[in-house]
Amino acid sequence: MKYISYFFIAIASAFLVILLSLSSCSPNFKTTTSQPIVIKKQPQTSQKIADATVKIHNFKFEPANLAIAVGKTVQFINVDEEPHTATATDGNFNSKALDTNQTWDYTATKPGTYPYICSIHPFMKGTLTVTPR
Ligand SMILES: [Cu+2]
After folding, report:
1. CATH superfamily to which 52-131 belongs
2. What pTM, to 2 d.p., does this model score?
3. Residue 113 CB partners (closer than 8 Å, separation 6+)
4. By the 8 A CB rule, do 104 and 45 touch?
5. Which tens digit of pLDDT belongs to each residue from 83-92?
6. Domain ranges (residues) in the chain
7. How far is the CA of 20 from the centre of ligand 1 (A)?
C-alpha cells in the first residue's frame, strides 16, 4: 500500500514539474519575442550617448549637413507634430516613421556621403557625411 502511494506521489510531482515548466515557458516565449524589439533597445540608446544630433523641426533636418566619423552615432529626434523619417536615398539607413519626440540612433559604419530624405515628405533633404576614423 505504501509503495502505491509513493508511486502516485511520484507521478503527481512529475506532472506538476511538467505543468510548471510549461506555464513558465509559454509567457517567456511571448515576452522574448516582443521585448527585444522595443525594450531591449531603449537601455542601449540611453546608455550610449549620441555623438551628434539631427533635430527634425518644421519639416527640416537641422543641421541639414552633418559629418561624423565611422563608429560615431548620430541621433535623429523628431520634434514636429507630424511623423518623419530619415531615409538614405541609397538605402544605407532608414529610421522608419518617428513620432513626436521619438528618437532614432544611427551608428555610421562606412565612409561616404549619404543624402537622405523623409520618405513621408520627400522634399525634406539632408546629407550625412561619414568620414574615415
Ligand atoms: Cu517628414
Report:
1. Cupredoxins -  blue copper proteins (2.60.40.420)
2. 0.65
3. 127, 128, 129, 130
4. no
5. 999 999 999 9
6. 52-131
7. 49
